[in-house]
Amino acid sequence: MAQAVKTKAPAKRPQAKKAKAPAGKPAEKGLTPLGTYSEGMEPNPVEKVIFERRSIRAFEKEPLPDNMIRRILEAGRFAPSAGNAQPWKFAVIKSPEILAEMEADAKKMAKLFMAGLDYTKSPLRRKLLGPGARALIRVMKNSLHPVPFSLLKVIAEDRAPVFHGAPTLILLYQDARGVSRPAVDIGICGQNMVLAAHSMGAGTCWIGLIKLLMYLPKWKKRFGVAWPYSLDECLAVGWPKGPYDGLVPREVQEVAWYEGEPDDPPRMERQGE
Ligand SMILES: Cc1cc2nc3c(=O)[nH]c(=O)nc-3n(C[C@H](O)[C@H](O)[C@H](O)COP(=O)(O)O)c2cc1C
Q1: What is the position in ligand 1's atom list of the atom closest to the CA of 54?
Q2: Ligand 1: centre distance to CA 204 (Å)
Q3: What's the CA gap between 147 and 124, in Å, rounded?
Q4: Residue 266, preceding bond cis, omega within 30 degrees?
Q5: Where are the chain's structural domains?
Q6: Whose CA is nearest to atom 18 of ligand 1?
Q7: What residue ranges line ligand 1, CB within 6 angstroms?
């Protein structure tokens, strides 16, 4: 049977600054889900949390109180999963020494990857590395998609951190024995945590780049990553530094509504306009 959530009063914390549209991004129609409430419907508190949450990449040094971290874990623990398999395991990293070592090693790995992959730096590198790098990028098309590729590049050039200086990381281990697609369950579980954290005034950022550490046996050993577990995602968690609520620009989605006779073509609606 599910256990009751054992939490005390919410931690005291100076109130984070209130929602503000990011500069240059007015809340215009089509940019934000809030723009779809043109019929005058107020977003409810859950919707507000969903719409206003942003990835936080600057944190106060002081970590969240443990009890709050437990509440965030609890939101993850209660996530739905295929067959209720709950194909996950969590760990909380708070030790500043371990966090610093993770950051340093992840950065080293980013540099190593870029040393072998970044063929754009000079004509010679383009000639020598280009074909191999392009082939690898094709094979690892998700990990080396242009977005993580350019993120790796700025990390390797010491222009961005991997874990954003967060005082706490929540590791989301995936259990390969889950039903259907455990990665989907991990996503839902993490999103529960992220939304719960935001609702409490905390900030989070998914860090898929924790994968960099999984190339180093020492981290697999330290974090106990062995069959059936893998560690592809973690959440940076803490008090946001500066204002954090914001309108989230998203693409307008063309949604097909099948609502007529079976042979009728769907009615297309542009969601978000
Ligand atoms: C599975 C996953 C992995 C992510 N990995 C990283 C990461 O390694 N580093 C990072 O800074 N942001 C990471 N992000 C954050 C995304 O960049 C961010 O969610 C996206 O740009 C949308 O911005 P928003 O979260 O502020 O709405 C990740 C997000 C997800 C869902």
Answers
A1: 26
A2: 10
A3: 24
A4: no
A5: 102-156
A6: 55
A7: 54-55, 57, 205-209, 233, 248
C-alpha distance from residue 72 to each of 157, 224, 243 (Å): 33, 22, 21
Measured in Å, residue 75 CA sits from the centre of ligand 1 at 19
Residues 219, 212: Cα–Cα separation, whole Å: 10
User: What sign has the CA pseudo-torsion 81, 86, 92, 98?
Assistant: negative
Q: If you average pLDDT over every residue of the chain, what do you get?
A: 85
Beta bridge partners of 254: 270
Polymer length in residues for the chain: 273
In DSSP terms, 91 is beta-bridged to 171
Task: Identify residue 82 by its one-letter amino acid code.
Answer: A
At 15-49, the pLDDT tens digits run: 333 334 333 343 444 444 555 555 667 778 898 89
Cα 75 to Cα 11: distance, rounded to the nearest angstrom: 17
What SS3 state is found at 8?
A: coil
Terminal-residue alpha carbon distance, the chain: 44
pTM: 0.85
